[in-house]
Amino acid sequence: MKKLLILGTGAYASALANNFYKNFDVVNLYGIDKDEINDINLNKMNSRYFPGAKFWSDKLYATDNIVEALEETTHILISLPTNAIIEVIENKILPNLKHKVFWINASKGFVPNYPLDQDFLNFIIPENLSHGIYKIIGGTFAVEMMAHMPSSLTLTSDKNLYNEELLEKFNSENIFTTWNDDFVAINLFSIFKNIYAIAQGMIEGLGYKKNTQTLLMMKSLRELNSIYNDFKHQELSASTLTTSALLGDFILTGTSKTSRNFSFGYSMISSNLEEALTQNKTIEGVKSLKELSFSHPKIIEKHDILNVLNRIIYQNKKPIDEFKKFLNNN
C-alpha cells in the first residue's frame, strides 16, 4: 500500500491532495484546525480557502491524530509555514514514526540556523526513518491547482537522489513535475523570491509602470544570480533558471496580487508594517528578510534591493525615497 500523509490542512496542502490522490491508495492530511478537519471529512471541502469547491476524491481524510496518520504511511509531504516545520517534525512526527518514509518538502521560506546550500531536514531526520529527503517547488497558486488548472513543479534533492518512481508519484493529469539536480539554486530561489516579490509589489504600489517593474525584476534576477554565485562559484545554468521552481515561481510571485508577498509590498505603500501584516500574518518574505539580516548580514549588505527593503521595512524609511535613490543610482 502507498499512503501519502500531508502535513497541513491549509490551501496549498489541500490543493496538492486534490491533485495527487490518484497516485496513492490513501491520502491523509494532518492538522490542528478542527473546523478545517471537519469540513474536509464531512463536506469534502475546505471552505476557508476554497468556498464552494469540493475535493475530487472520497479517499482524502483529515485528522489531528498523528499516531493514526502515521500508520502505514510511505510518503510524508510537508506543507506547513516554515516556522512550524521543525516543531511539528520533532514533537509530533519523529516520536511516533516507526519506519522509513520518503520526505518531500513543499514549504517555501528560510529556516534559521541551517546552511542555505543544504536541506535542513537532513539535520533533523535520522537515517533510520528516511528513504530520502526531497524538495518540491513551483510557480503555482493553490486556488488554480485546486481547480485542476495545468501547473508545473520541480523536484530536487541536495543528495542528488533522483527517483523515477517518486517523480511519477508527484505528477498528475494537470501537474507536470520535472527533476532538477541543482538543489542550491532551487532552495535559494524559494527563499529569496518572496523577498523580491515584496519589492515588486512596492514598485507597483508607488505607481511605476511595466517598464520599471520589468527593470526591477531583471535587477532582482541579477542579484539572485550573485547570491547563487557566492555559494556555488558559478553562474546559473539556463536549464535550471527556466524551471518552474526558479523563473516560473519568481514571475508568478512577483507579478500578481494573488501573491501574499507582492500584496504585502503593495499595501505597505499606503500603510505601515503592522497594518500591512494584519491583512495576512504569513508573509514568508518579511520573516526571511529579518532572519537573514541576523544570520547572513553580508548578503543583505552586498545586494542593493535587499538593502532597500531592509531600510523600508525595519528602519522605517519611506519607500518612495528609497526606490528613487535606487533607480537613480542604477
Offer a quick outline of the entry.
The protein has 330 residues and is of the alpha/beta class. It has 17 helices and eight strands. The chain is globular.
Question: How much strand?
Answer: 5-15%
Helix/sheet category: alpha/beta
> What percentage of residues falls in helices of 4 or more residues?
40-55%
- What is the average of the pLDDT values? 94
What letter string, H or E per element, gives the SSE order? EHEHEHEHEHEHEHEHHHHHHHHHH
- What is the CA-based Rg, rounded? 20 Å
Number of strands: 8
**Helix count, per DSSP?**
17
Largest sheet: 8 strands, mixed
N→C terminal distance: 57 Å
Key phrases:
330 residues; alpha/beta; 17 helices; 51% helix; globular
Notes on the protein architecture:
The chain has 330 residues and is an alpha/beta fold. The chain is built from 17 helices and 8 strands. The protein has helices spanning 11-20, 34-43, 66-70, 82-93, 121-124, 142-146, 164-169, 183-205, 210-232, 238-241, 244-255, 260-268, 273-278, 284-295, 297-302, 304-314, 319-329; strands at residues 3-7, 26-30, 60-63, 75-78, 101-105, 130-137, 151-156, 175-179. It has an 8-stranded mixed β-sheet, with helices on both faces. Strand 5, helix 5 (121-124) and strand 6 form a beta-alpha-beta unit. The radius of gyration is 20 Å and the shape is globular.
